[in-house]
Amino acid sequence: MRRRIFAGALVVAPAIVAAARAQAPLTFATAGAGSLFLPYGQGLAKIVEAAGAARIAIRQTRGSNDNLDIVDADPSAIGCSFLGSAYDALNGTGFAAGRPHGNVRALFPMYETAFMAAALKAKNISSVKSLDTKRVGCGPAEGYFRAAAEIAGIKPVIVGGTPADNGKALLAGEIDAFWQGASVPIPSLVAVATAADCVVFGLSDTEAAAMLKRFPYMTNFGAPAGTYRGQIKPITSVAAWNVVIAHKDMAEATAYAVTKSVLSSKDLVAAAGAAAASTKASNAGMNKVVPYHPGAVKALAELGVKVN
């Protein structure tokens, strides 16, 4: 009996692979250089292509908002998205004000994005409260820092720039701190903590609770002591997951094949980096924002996870 079941599986799998190979490449919207989305997406593309699930063409973008726009308009596109951006897209709020993205569906979970800040130890800054009137570098996570500042009752001076630019400015004394959201340990914070004596900090318990109330897709997050050089106390903060998204009209067989190939791979971390250790079927429930594509639902069910 087991031999017959296995043989049946061999009949189905090549048919899916053949159909995937016959299609034009899927566009995989990631982000630009310096973002974790780019190497993560490039690594996943190798996994998907090696499995014969689909051909992939990487498209560098400005990040989640662009990716949501692209996927909402194109059944042959997939993309990386932060759940906060996806929440706005589906509800027609924030960057998507007045234009709900009703075509967006989820394929599988990626990893968490947590929010933290760094300051030179000599500045005696170790909390969001202590950033009042200070110059704080922010990149794509600026909106979340503004929310944290409002909750803390402070009025910092916000400075734009990429994480790399903010790190250089911090070390040069041009800004007092910088705020970043990424997979922990956050590379830009690791860089400054390695280059100089720094304090890396998150939110107070009260601030974290208020952030969770304001952003329903967020969860509590803690980084243990030693996550960054010189860090002797655990860091409390908040985080939200990232997911790979697709258009609702993507062929079910394609969505299934892509999802199954990624979540069944034993080579994810080697191909896509340490953050990909969280890319597994058991984390699918962390996404409570974007409905799953029927093809993804089927793949997840075969991997022992039931989602809506």
3D structure, described in words:
The chain is an alpha/beta fold and 308 residues long. It folds into 2 domains: 2-110 and 242-302, 3-Layer(aba) Sandwich (D-Maltodextrin-Binding Protein, domain 2), CATH 3.40.190.10; 113-240, Periplasmic binding protein-like II (D-Maltodextrin-Binding Protein, domain 2), CATH 3.40.190. Helices cover 39% and strands 21% of the residues. The protein has 11 helices and 10 strands. Strands 1, 2, 3, 4, 5, 6, 7, 8, 9 and 10 form a 10-stranded mixed sheet that branches. The protein is globular, with a radius of gyration of 21 Å. The protein starts with a helix and ends in a 6-residue tail after the last helix.
Layout: helices, strands, pairs:
Elements: H1 2-22, E1 26-29, H2 37-50, E2 56-59, H3 64-73, E3 77-82, H4 83-91, E4 104-120, E5 135-138, H5 142-152, E6 157-159, H6 163-171, E7 177-182, H7 187-195, E8 198-201, H8 205-214, E9 219-223, E10 235-247, H9 252-263, H10 268-272, H11 294-302
Parallel strand pairs: 1-2, 1-3, 5-6, 5-7
Antiparallel strand pairs: 3-10, 4-7, 4-8, 4-10, 9-10
CATH topology of the largest domain: D-Maltodextrin-Binding Protein, domain 2
Specify the CATH class of the largest domain.
Answer: Alpha Beta
Number of strand elements: 10
Global shape: globular
CATH homologous superfamily identity of the largest domain: Periplasmic binding protein-like II
Q: Ranges with pLDDT <50 over ≥5 residues? A: 1-12
Return the average pLDDT rounded to an integer.
Answer: 91
CATH architecture of the largest domain: 3-Layer(aba) Sandwich
Number of domains: 2
In angstroms, what is the radius of gyration?
Answer: 21 Å
What letter string, H or E per element, gives the SSE order? Answer: HEHEHEHEEHEHEHEHEEHHH
- For the termini, the CA-CA separation is 32 Å
> Helix tally?
11
What structural class do the secondary elements suggest? alpha/beta
Question: What helical percentage do the residues reach?
Answer: 25-40%
* Largest sheet features: 10 strands, mixed
Beta content comes to: 15-25%
